Amino acid sequence: MHDEVYIYKKKNEDTLRFSLRSLSNVPHGNVFIVGDLPSWTKNVFHIPYTFGKGRILDSWSQIKLACQDPRLSEDFIFMNDDFYIMHPVNTIPYYVRNKDKRGNSVHGKALARTRALFPAHEFKCFDSVHSPMVINTKKFLSLYEVYDINGSYVYKTLYGNHYKLEAIVSHDVKARSITSFLTRFKRNDYPFMSSDDRVERDPRFKAEMSKFFSEKSIYEV
To answer: How far lies 190's CA from each of 104, 171, 172, 176, 187, in Å?
Structure first.
């Protein structure tokens, strides 16, 4: 059974709470949180991490730490605190974006550098779907032997393309406005959902999620 790994930097703790509650919808083993640890959590393995390398390299370093922990299952489900599993699922498929995201942000530039490593006709964008992803510890660590991992590349897309993973084409499941969130939430026709900071600051987000994920998880005090 796959363990769950969260890379977490403290912000709105409601997202992590709801995400942990949503794990009841997928078979899983232990839960690991790499980074900050909220005081209300229990029954999780904590791997401390000191931030300061920049968002992309911090994420690489957090996942690397988890992969080096002998307690972690060889295959694990990678999660962010704002990923929610909305329906019961038995497995986590691989997903790629239905359109290739481009831009001048730090993430956009890193994605462009990752894209340049692979033939255009073979490239798949595993980032910007905002859903869980199964990662193999040995395969992830092996990327460090092939590439110069210094924050230049995005990890999900590099991992997916290097290992030529078969994936389902998907739209981005992240709601970026409260209107979008409420529409998707009401429709609830997709197994995964994600939220951004603007949505999470709106009181309607917490109200709806509290009703949907009303039962405490085993990971809460």
So the answer is: 30, 10, 11, 16, 8
10 assigned to some structural domain: yes
What is the per-residue pLDDT for 11?
Answer: 83
Domain containing 166: what range?
3-212
- Give the Cα-Cα-Cα angle 91, 55, 146 (nearest 5 degrees): 70
In a domain, residue 127? The reply is yes
Count of the separate structural domains present in the chain = 1
Spell out, as residue ranges, where the chain has pLDDT lower than 50. Answer: none
- Domain membership flag for residue 219: no
Domain annotation covers residue 25: yes
DSSP 59-100: HHHHHHHHHT-TTS-SEEEEEETTEEE-S--SS---EEESS-
Taking only the tens place, the pLDDT of each residue in 58-68 is 999 999 999 99
The CATH number linked to 134 is 3.90.550
Asked if residue 98 lies in contact with residue 173, where contact means CB atoms within 8 angstroms, the answer is no
| Distance between CA atoms of residues 150 and 140, nearest Å | 15
Residue with tokens 């949907």: 212
In what order do the strands lie in the sheet containing 83-85? 83-85, 192-195, 174-175
